[in-house]
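#lab-general

N.A. 3:47 PM
ok so I finally got the sequence cleaned up, no stray characters, all 99 residues accounted for. can someone with queue access submit it? mine expired

B.Y. 3:52 PM
send it over

N.A. 3:53 PM
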Amino acid sequence: MNVNKILLLLLCIVFVNGCVQSTAFLGPAITLASTGNLYQSGIQYGANKAIKRETGKDTIEYISEIMNPSDEKTLNENFVILVENRIKKTRKIIFPENN
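B.Y. 4:20 PM
back already:
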């Protein structure tokens, strides 16, 4: 009997899974269920919708793009220039007679 209930539940989850149209509401729903704070979940939902409207991306996509920019080569080049300039300044301080 318990196996039948588990199989029925899994089957229902598979079919109902397609009913979730927007994941922007899923996060605030979990927040509301776990904390019971309606205001916090409302603000979270509003922020998700505002970010989606302004950027066209979900919150997770937007934050991951900020954290991992596609300009890694430019960042690496800037870092190399910074280190080279620092090495030159240090050499001038250590060996002033070579200038």
